[in-house]
């Protein structure tokens, strides 16, 4: 699930200045992950144990583990990102003072890659280099590819995703509370979770500009395959 | 864990042209995630059940679920990323043909944001707009923030991360094979896993340019907190 996250985020990030949309996106991401892994775990156990209480206990443990790993992990990673940006920024200021010619060459190089003629590279670089703050900002963005991180956004996102993961994880687990055998629980769990995965996949794909029905199918498929595989493997270890 | 991934990837990505280093990074990422969640799940169950076989079954089911969600999810997300790039590229070519003036204004706008004077904005834009392919490439990168995705890298990464997750997950689980009570298993699992998390945290932080000891501590802390919380909550549901 992490790799999906990464790709989606690289698309989603562009819109993250719309805070409310980022919030909704975080909820959708957390929920669809939360739906997938606890669902597959519960399905796997259903093939191997005969007590609903055990499935529920394991599911709860997984939800707690997963949402803490996501929430706390994201929180700490958010701090690290801010520190990383500040350190690189300080280094750029230092380089502009002390290795001015090298920085000028690097700036020219960036414009050369854009396809500018040597003459314009020269002129543009001279203009950029006039204002120290603007120059550093330019190097941060175009040499290092770093945008100034909002010190709160990453943490807010992490918490939203962590909490949504926990809520999402309850969907596949709840049927095991209200049924008497793991098999019965599994049936209801699969029905409700696959429907929810499809709905979330639809909105997630819409938010990232993908084809919504195809995206919904993919998300549902991942959940179904993960659950089927977990079921099969757990049966072997029964 | 997903949010960590996302932040780390935004840093790691810059170095991804070094394929061998990307490969090692993927292994480290998959393993440290695989160490965390199955560890916490097994720890949680150790507080609630009295059979090692159950802990092992649940752990295996989680590993299968998690690595499929990661591997297959990443594989499909990689395809989507390539499709997304191609669609946007096609749109840019169309816009350059049919909405030329708007595209010229957008290009100027990009240079205005870099801090160039109106005169140079004009000149630079004229030069960029001469070569259609270069112009589209420029718009893809600087207007949309999209780099041409390597059609294979995302999938390769996803598979490497998925497989590493599975291997990482075996570390916290193996002690339960060789001990007779879940409590005994938990002790050995915690010792070996926390050591491994510390080592992986160290290398992961080094690879992303973070402070290695501090990073190692953070990664270990996340694992420990997740395991302790899962243990506590599962005890309530015992």
From TrEMBL, chains A, B:
BP GO annotations: intracellular manganese ion homeostasis
UniProt keyword annotations, A-Z: Membrane, Transmembrane, Transmembrane helix
GO MF annotation list: manganese ion transmembrane transporter activity
A Pfam short name: VIT1
Main location: membrane
TM annotation in the entry: 158-179, 185-203, 215-237
Membrane topology, from the record: Multi-pass membrane protein
Compartments, record wording: Endomembrane system
Top-level taxon: Bacteria
Keyword flag Transmembrane: yes
A Gene Ontology cellular-component term: endomembrane system
Name of this protein: VIT1/CCC1 family predicted Fe2+/Mn2+ transporter
Organism field: Runella defluvii
Phylogenetic placement of the source organism: Bacteria, Pseudomonadati, Bacteroidota, Cytophagia, Cytophagales
């Amino acid at each position: 699930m992490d790799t999906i996250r990464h790709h989606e985020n690289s698309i989603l990030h562009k819109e993250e200045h719309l805070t409310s949309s980022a919030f909704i996106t975080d909820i959708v991401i957390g929920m669809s992950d939360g739906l997938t892994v606890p669902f597959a775990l519960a399905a796997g156990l259903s093939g191997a144990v005969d007590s609903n209480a055990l499935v529920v206990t394991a599911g709860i443990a997984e939800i707690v583990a997963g949402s803490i790993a996501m929430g706390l992990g994201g929180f700490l990673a958010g701090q690290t990102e801010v520190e990383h940006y500040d350190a690189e920024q300080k280094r750029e200021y230092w380089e502009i003072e002390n290795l001015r010619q090298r920085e000028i060459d690097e700036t020219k190089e960036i414009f050369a890659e854009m396809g500018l003629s040597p003459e314009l590279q020269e002129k543009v670089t001279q203009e950029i280099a006039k204002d120290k703050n603007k120059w550093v900002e330019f190097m941060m963005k175009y040499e290092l590819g770093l945008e100034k991180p909002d010190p709160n956004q990453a943490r807010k996102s992490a918490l939203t995703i962590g909490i949504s993961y926990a809520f999402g994880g309850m969907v596949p687990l709840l049927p095991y509370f209200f049924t008497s055998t793991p098999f019965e629980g599994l049936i209801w769990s699969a029905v409700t979770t696959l429907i929810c995965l499809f709905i979330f996949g639809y909105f997630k794909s819409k938010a990232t500009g993908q084809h919504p029905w195809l995206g919904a199918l993919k998300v549902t498929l991942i959940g179904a395959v993960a659950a089927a595989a977990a079921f099969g493997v757990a049966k072997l270890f029964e």
